[in-house]
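Re: beginner question about structure tokens

> Can someone show what the tokenized structure looks like for a real chain? I only ever see the sequence side.

Sure, here's an example I had lying around. Input first:
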Amino acid sequence: MKPIIGVSGTQLLNPARGFEGTLVAYTPQNYIDTVQGVGATPIMLPVGTAEDAKNMVALIDALILTGGHDVNPALYGEEPHRNLTGIFPKRDAFDFALYAAAIEKGIPVLGVCRGLQIINVYHGGSLYQDLPSQYGDELLLHVQKAPFDIPMHSISVQTESRLYEAVGAHTRVNTFHHQAIKQLGNDLKAVAHSVDGIVEAIESADPNIDMIALQWHPEIMATTDTANNRLFEDLVARAAKAKLKLS
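And the corresponding structure tokens:
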């Protein structure tokens, strides 16, 4: 059986005529296509309770924490900045529970954009709530106006990292986020930065936690960029190993 990759979901209001005001559970199609393209079976994990999260993780071989809403700043002890956008506290709690269950089970985790931020906050770190107003004049453009599959800025990757094995020492990535890591969480290591100093990727400093998290969106670039596709190939390979170990 193919490895099963859990892809965290979110919610939006149904725009369909006659269903206005009802909620839709969804995850972006790019994740589904990319996971299927590297030989695994994706399943969406709809937002639920902590118990739901634990039950869902019991069914999967790896976890992807996807992008989306701003993380509630109360989780890292801050008041809301004037440029904070929409938050979804129920999803924050659910993503925390998914991540906790995944590392307890010992399966690999890939965090993407908000997923990186959730992992950092889970480990006691904090975020810039709004980069343009909080970071400084040296800030690059981090919300690109070009199509999302176009790489926009460069990153430098530490050679002693799993990420280096997939993308090498330097690569270019897409970018659309107004938040980023400010204080790095406990037992995490920053393994990639953009030239303005923004943390672009983290891994666990604990060898027992199999986690890579990225500030960019590799699922959008994976169909046209081999390095980003390798990140998903690597995730599936690690999932297969975890599945064998747990069987």
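Each token stands for a local structural state, so reading them left to right follows the chain. The longest helix spans residues 226-246.
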